[in-house]
Amino acid sequence: MIPLYQKLFLLLALFLPFSFALSPTKTIDLNILKLFIPIIFLFWLANSLLHRKIIIDNRPRFWFLITFLFIVFLSFFWTSAPESALRKILFFTTTIPLYFIVYTNNPNQNFQNKLLKYLVLGSFISACLALAFSSLQFIIGLNPTLIFLRTYISPFFLGHSMATLVNQYSSWLVNISGKTILRTFSTFPDPHLFSLYLSMTLPLTIYLYKKHSQKKYLYFFTIILLTILLSFSRAAYLAIIIGGIFLLITSISKNFFKKRLLLLYSIFILILFLFITPNPLISRFQSSFNLQDGSNSGRIEMWKTAIKNIQEKPLFGLGLGGFADNLNSSLGFRNPIYAHNLLLDFAAETGIFNAIILLAILLSPILFYFKELSSNKQLSIKTSPNLSQFIATSFIIFFVHSLFETPFFSIRVFPLFLILLAINSSHAKMGYPTKWQE
Question: Could you give the 3-state DSSP secondary structure of residue 286?
Answer without folding.
Answer: helix
